[in-house]
Amino acid sequence: MRSPRRLKLSHHALSAAVLVCLAAPAVAADVPAAPPAATELDRVTVTGQIAYRDRSEATAPTLSYGLDYFQRFEPLTVGDMLKRVPSVGFVSDVLEYDGARLRGLDPGYTQILINGKKVPGAGGDRSFYVDRIPAELVERIEIIRSPSANRSGDAVAGALNIVLRDAYDFDGGYLRAGALQFDDDKTKPVLGAVGSGEFAGGRVLGGVNVQGRHNPKRKRSDRFESPDGDFVDREDQSDVRDGTDYSGNLSYTRDIGTGRLSVDGFYVRTDRTETEHSLEYNDPASRARDHLLSVNDQKVDIKQDNASLNARYAFDMAGGRSEIDLGYARFEDRRHDTEQEIGYDDEDSPPSFDGFEGTRILGDTRDSEFSLKLAHSRALGAAKMEFGVDGVDKRRTASLRTSEVEAEKEGQPLPPYADFERQTSRIEERRLDPYLMFSGKQGRIDWETGLRYETTRAKIRSVAEEGEDAVQRDKDYGLLLPSAHLRFNLTEHDRLSASIARTVRRPDFNQLLPMTLEEEYGDNDFLGNPDLQPETAWGLDLGYERRLGQRGVVGVNLFYRKVRDLIEIVGTGRPSATALDDHEDAVEEFLDEHPGAGPGTPGYPVLDPDSFVFTAANIGDGSVYGAEFDLSTPLTALGLADTGVFLNYSWLDSEVDDDFGKRRFNNQPRSVLNVGFIQDLPGVGMSFGASYRRQGDAASRVLGEEVSTRYGADLEAFVEKRFGSQVAVRLTGSNLLNASKDEDFHKFNTLGDQLGRDYDEYERESEKAGPVYQLVVRYAF
Fold first, then answer.
1. With 90 as the cut, is the pLDDT of residue 254 above it?
2. Which end of the chain, C or N, has fewer beta carbons within 10 A?
């Protein structure tokens, strides 16, 4: 009970502050209606009804999908859930759904929220891997296509809000147990429990979950001198991701006076091992020792901790409703990466031993955020006014230690990894974002408009190598972000919506650090730029939605984003470390042949670099546009009330200018298709269904490398048997078509080579994985 007392003191302090600044006369308090009865958990755990997409009443364009929309297919993670909704793409390995790409844009353009709050992640692009959150913690997924003023503007592509189960919304409990079977005969457990009920004058909900993770893949790469050139080598690789996720969540809600106190938190621990074994041959088919070029083994041990704790108190005050919201979130990522390779000289026949070397990289990233929100809303004539301020204190530290060793003779073991080079960095960001928002309803029109001003004070500190002086830069900037949303209710079933908003994408942490990374792009080096400004975008969304019968929904949405100050890689004109080394080697060789020579001696080497130092800079603009269609409905009109169909299709396009001409935004798929059905058999207490997903081709072009990516189709199916209202048994199968990911890599050493199409290497890679079967039993009580 100590936390509520502290919140009460904050309530008195805030009351005084808000009373001073209120100019509007006091009106009757907008007391919320009594909460509806909590939904019994067996209605979402053991259900004989098909769930459809919810119709959101938010004025801002929002799609809402409850857990029961996904649950028949027994998704393991939020990533498994998001792959079924409109416009969300992934450019991950097969069966990996980590960095969500709303509208197909890089994960850094999509804001990931948990219970409406931003969360830190390991990605340098500020993204959050959605496959780190188990599906069992989730109540619903919201796709917020255009932001409102009372939320952060870091949502160029939109926002994905992961709403966790709340104590006031659910009652009862359930147990979940099962197993996953993979095509390499590996079995992993699935265990979980959730319970909710009255406690200490309020309501509490708690859950725990243990989930095995496994993904065995097979890869083959064929390399050539160029797309039409001679064969160079082939690589056969096995790639296995194996681990376990442990998670827990807790929610407590209690009415206190005229207000409501809510406390919630979650914790996810990921233990994961990634193991790769590769064999490289100089023949397209043979696996004989006489054709072996290298043996490579890599093992990465990953430990991640993701935790969040939030407390919110909303209460009546000064004729309106005030809110104090405190939050703390922390993400830790520790990696132990060891790669060892035995190489063989292809100039000999058969290839002879050419060296044994190893690299160990120890990475440690810690990212934490403390947030505070103060807000007040009140009636203002026929409208509602809301104003407040969001404060965020973010601290991110990263450490990278690298050790390289080698053995001189065949059969000799590698020496210990003892001498480590270390790089460290620290970034601090403090934000204070006031906002003002108005909303209301006039006849058939719902409207909302607002203005948000986001201020950022950043400190960037890096040490390239241990013993060097730290480089520190300070940076301040502010952004004005207006937004407006309009919804016209044509009829009881039909409505139109329009939204316009300005959003922002902040620079990648790695691009801000003032340190040089050698040979980051081919032979070219990269130098971070702490003076980068954030990208901004004006966005427009136009939508139409119709209610079909009692439960169905169909909708179409058109969107456009004009992105300003795009961050691209540009040259500095300075020679790279490789170019300088090559020049020193040439000078040394010339002096050996011409003792006593100097720079004025005829033939003395002159530095003529073909590789340079590049950096990141705000240059040019880009545009993103597309159309999104979604349908979720029972076939009642055809006399099939127990048949539900689901279809969403997104057509995505964009345009960017870079040093090589026009292109799309990197890795944006051309389309995303999801289609499926569920058939309920109420007479026998059974259901079955299938879901088909296909993602369009994508392409990426950066300095030194151009990649095209193609994904195979993904088919999932389930069959369910229910025993009364308490027990359900589900068998699901995923990746039933043995989906593949095929990529073409065009590689170049220098900018000039890339412009002139002078290849360093052309590679074709194919990655495949087999089907996964899951048997789960749920018992509700």
1. yes
2. N
